[in-house]
Design goal:
Blueprint: E1 5-7, E2 16-17, E3 19-26, E4 29-37, E5 40-42, E6 55-60, E7 65-66, E8 74-79
Antiparallel strand pairs: 1-5, 2-7, 3-4, 3-6, 6-8
Amino acid sequence: MEFAELDIKSKTGKNEVDTFEITLARGSRAVDNRKISGDHFDLRKYSGVARSGDRIVIEIHPDSITPSGETTKVIITIPII
């Protein structure tokens, strides 16, 4: 398994993410959950903990996007194989 750095950017470049939550999940439980300030996270922090079958779940809440106006929470799930 190889992990890299993660940057959260909008497609248009008009919005910025101030904070987001990232969870390493195994089955139905969270192995690690972090609230990140900014738009960057180094996924290599999970390289010693993550197993095949786990997943990384990223949640971006609408109130953490500037300029505001977004109304939908964004959830991205990345399976680890």
